[in-house]
Amino acid sequence: MSGHIARKVVQSFQARASAPAETDTLTARELQVLQKLSEGHAYKQIASDLGISLSTVRTYINRIYEKLHVHSQAAAVMKLPRKYAD
After folding, report:
1. Are 35 and 84 in contact (CB under 8 A)?
2. Can you give the residue ranges of every domain in the chain?
3. Which of 5, 23, 53, 86 is the most buried (most CB within 10 A)?
4. Distance between CA atoms of 69 and 86, rounded to whole angstroms?
5. Which helix (H) or strand (E) is 45 found in, with range?
6. Residues 38-79: pLDDT tens digits?
7. How confident is the model at residue 19 (pLDDT cuts 50, 70, 90)?
8. Coil, helix or strand for 39?
9. Is 84:37 a contact under the CB 8 Å cutoff?
10. Which residues have a Cβ under 8 Å from the Cβ of 19 and sit 6 or more positions away?
């Protein structure tokens, strides 16, 4: 590998490392909802636990999917940072 190519590869990794995680765009409440999803809670249970309506939970879920560019609960949970999943 030439020096020029090696430099490009290193710059690519540095750019990825300094880029904000997709979950950084989530609000605190969206993170709470996503964390509850990761724990296996149903929408009704999330609504009850957080003191919000079922339709509000669905709105949060839709926003989470949009922000994380996913189409399923499993894909969204996979993007949850480990610090929130514990």
Report:
1. yes
2. 22-85
3. 23
4. 23
5. helix 43-50
6. 999 999 999 999 999 999 999 999 999 999 999 999 999 998
7. very low
8. coil
9. no
10. none
The alpha carbon of residue 13 and the mean position of all alpha carbons in its chain are separated, in whole angstroms, by 21
Q: Which two tokens stand for residue 13?
A: 């990794």
Quick check: 58 and 42 in contact, CB under 8 A? no
Name the token pair of 21: 């995680």
* SS3 of residue 27 by DSSP: coil
| Tokens matching residue 9 | 């590869």
Nearest C-alpha neighbor of 65 from the set 53, 50, 80: 80
Q: Per-residue DSSP letters for 27-39?
A: -HHHHHHHHHHHT
Q: What are the tokens at 51?
A: 């003191």
Torsion, CA 35, CA 38, CA 44, CA 47, rounded to 10: 0
| CB-CB contact of 45 with 14 (8 Å) | no
